[in-house]
Amino acid sequence: MVPKKQEHIPVLADEVLKLLDPKPGESYLDLTAGYGGHASLVLERTLNAPAILVDRDEQAISALKKRFADKPVQISHSDFLAASSEQLDKNERFDLILADLGVSSAHLDTPSRGFAFMHDGPLDMRMDTDAKLTADAIVNGYSAEEIAEILKNYGEEPRARRIAQAIVANRPITSTKALAEVVARAAGRGRGKIHPATKTFQALRIAVNDELGQLEQALPVWIQLLKPGGRLAVISFHSLEDRLVKRAFAELAGDRYDSEAKLLTKKPVEAGRDEIVFNPRARSAKLRAVVKIKIPVTTGPKRKGV
Ligand SMILES: C[S@@+](CC[C@H](N)C(=O)[O-])C[C@H]1O[C@@H](n2cnc3c(N)ncnc32)[C@H](O)[C@@H]1O
Fold it and tell me: CA angle 25-27-29, nearest 5°?
């Protein structure tokens, strides 16, 4: 079936199912449920056992409510750091946890959300439209130094200073197309295949939604939220996210005697060519997973001669 323009196709779906390995009766926490693609596949296998579906986007929440109207799932409009901390406070634990990070196809395909330079729209980029900070506030309000820091840290943009100065010199900038043009003029076309504004848009989006801050603080909470034997899978879409996931998993699920969890993926799982042709968003997806160790080890390794 050819998907409709805004339909979100879940990435690495087979691989997620293989690693999470959902079984009848297992509880499920989906921290970025989006349009419910992964969630419906998991719920088919848990036979509609208790599940919580979280998203910070109101539109996604409405779509989830419709899609799962006849299922016994709890749907929560929240960012995943707040949602997972709340579950920890309530002492809840889950067999299966999934975080499929970043934006959905609906974000990118809806000009009024301001995520994409391919469409003209306002400089918004908020996943949660109740949030205060918009891309407009950064582009038209921050100093050139502050903008350059954002472009460098969240976009790994080598021409961060030049672009930031051009942004400040061309204010007010009021639309995504206008911003993309200012960036393209400042950065030059370059030799790469990607549009010169790609990194700037990524950086602004990450800053507006505090994406890395959320992820860094939430990862240890997610490991704590697993039941013994429970599985956590995280899909990231750029190297900054994947680095955080890799580091947290190495710390919490490394080969140490006191590790809380064990790696299910030594290297990240990536999409094959067939999937990328069908769903180009899968091109940059990286999937990592861990399993919570069943019996916590309380003593250290035996030393020689002891
Ligand atoms: C890639 S989509 C998920 C798609 C989903 N797995 C599916 O199959 O339909 C990512 C979703 O995560 C949400 N999101 C991103 N960061 C979030 C956060 N920190 N807290 C809650 N939701 C978040 C976005 O609003 C978006 O709907």
Answer: 155
> Is 70 exceeded by the pLDDT of residue 304?
no
For ligand 1, the distance from its centroid to the CA atom of residue 68, given in whole angstroms, is 16
Q: Yes or no: say if 42 and 68 are a contact pair by the CB < 8 Å rule.
A: no
Crossing angle of helices 211-225/80-89, nearest 10°?
30
Helix (H, G, I), strand (E, B) or coil at 70: coil
Range of the domain at 219: 13-100+211-292
**Residue nearest to ligand 1 atom 1, measured at CA:** 104
Same-domain check for residues 218 and 203: no
Distance 180 CA to ligand 1 centre (A): 25
Q: How far is the CA of 99 from the centre of ligand 1 (A)?
A: 8
Asked whether residue 218 falls in the same domain as residue 94, the answer is yes
Of the pLDDT bands very low, low, confident and very high (cuts 50, 70, 90), residue 299 is low
